[in-house]
Amino acid sequence: MPTFDTIDDLPADKRVLVRLDLNSPIEDGTPQDNRRFERHAETVRELADAGHRVVLMAHQGRPGRDDFTSLAGHAEILADHVGRDVAFVADTYGDEALAAIDALGAGEVLLLENARMCEDELPEASPEEKAETAFVEALAPRFDAYVNDAYSAAHRKHASLVGFPLVLPAYAGRVMETEYEANTTIATRQFDGPVTMVVGGTKATDVIGVMDALDDRVDRFLLGGVAGELFLRAAGHPVGHDVGEMDLFDEQWERNRELIESVLDERGDAIRLASDLAYEGEDGERAEVAVDDIAEKETGYLDVGAATVDDYEPPIRESDAVFVKGALGVFEDERFADGTVGVLEAIAETDCFSVVGGGDTSRAIEMYGMDEGDFSHVSIAGGAYIRALTGEPLPAVEALEAAAERRAEN
After folding, report:
1. pLDDT tens sequence across 135-159
2. Cβ neighbours, 10 Å, residue 124
3. Domain contains 33
4. Which of 187, 59, 38 is nearest to 113 (CA)?
5. Within 10 Å of residue 27's Cβ, how many Cβ atoms?
6. Tell me, what DSSP letter sits at residue 375?
7. Measuring CA to CA, how many Å separate 295 from each of 47, 191, 291, 329?
8. Which of 59, 151, 205, 274 lies at a CB distance of 3.0 to 4.6 Å from 179, suitable for a disulfide?
9. Residues 154 and 194 occupy one common structural domain
10. Is 2 within the bounds of a domain?
């Protein structure tokens, strides 16, 4: 269980600074609604309904990237989910922002401009260094408390995440609380039956590290995506390398070859690889080929095949717990969603503890009409989920825990 304080511990009638993660896809300059707004709205609504003065911080993109933009549109989307006005100020800690904060009434909500537009925000540094930035020193005196709800950014040492908890009473919001509890379950809970992990996605380096770290806690791994192909390559099949203009496999193979081969050697009996793969046929339709029939990789494989889904369903259905990290195919294209959707549907129909992690994979649940309630937890975190699975520390969580210790001592 977490050792930080939550908003249940927050005294009444406070001016509260709240860190959210509203990072979203940007299309034609406009932020797109996603699960993050809905989840964070619960924390914002609860604080506003309790009569607190609620000021929100969040980020969008990074400097130099196409999705680095203002949060004005985010305020409108969030307001729809919260069910009350969310004011916006195009400033973060200057005079305009401070005036808007001071003018806030009980139950009112204000969103500040993109935190990453502050030069103090991004460089990774210790909480002590971040607490002494102009960003923190200007804003902190205006508040009675700080709430971190941005679990999906908790692996970062940014000012808005680790600086404020050092100088203000700090609490976890509902997203932080529920994500932390669900995502650390694999390391903290004992299950009576088999534990299965579905491993996919395009970032093989991340998931291979998870497989290595969890080898004593997971009974079997079901592989797909880029990691699945790389393991097939290690097993002697002519796949798992780039063809044409592809740039997904070769670099990750070179970086992880020794680890892949050692994991396969040591845990081969626990690792299930795809028996068939799907690709785009000459007619543009989905086509499948048995892995044993592939003499040479001539095209990109975009999903696991039907036989693989049939192979993966029984171990899922007999599991006591199933954790998912990464999609088994390019599910955004309906032709290549069968693997991801088939596995998720099998999990949904099984009475097991289940966590679906990573923002991309969790989108498949919504895209293909599945009920989020059929899973124990659907995570909106990516990097933080990986860190939690591998047992690596999350700086923003550590900052909340340290704040709770100081509060307990006083």
Report:
1. 999 999 999 999 999 999 999 999 9
2. 11
3. yes
4. 59
5. 9
6. S
7. 60, 42, 9, 21
8. 151
9. no
10. no
